[in-house]
Amino acid sequence: MQRQLYFTFVMLIRMVQDKIPQNTTFLMPSDRMLSTTSVPENQVLDLLLRHSIPALLMFNDLIKLPNGTILPTHHTSQMITITNREHQKLYFNNIELTSPDVCHGGDLFRYSELGHNLHFQSYLDF
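Predicted structure:
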C-alpha cells in the first residue's frame, strides 16, 4: 500500500486513522495529484472523508451500479455521482477511476486510484 504513488494519502490516513469509520472505500488521488493541493493539518480528516464511500466496494461492485448512481461520502454534505461512459471505465464526479482495487486494508478498507482530486458541489447548497 505504501507504494510510491500513494505514500502521501497513506500518511494522511495514518494522521487521523482513529477517526475514520470502518468499512470504507477510499478513492485515492496519486501523490502527483496530491502534490498540487495544500491540505492544512486541521483539514486532513475532511479531505479523507470527501474521498471515501461508507461501504466496502470492489470494482466489480461499482461497475454494476446504474449509470448516474449517486453515492454518499463519509462527509455529510458531499455526494459522488458515478458514471460509466465507456465499457469497464468508471468516473466519479467526472474524474476517471484509473486503478481500481489497488489494495485492501484487511476487512476494514478498500482503495482505488483516481486520476485527479474529487471536486464537489455541496448538495446542501440547493
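Summary: The radius of gyration is 14 Å.
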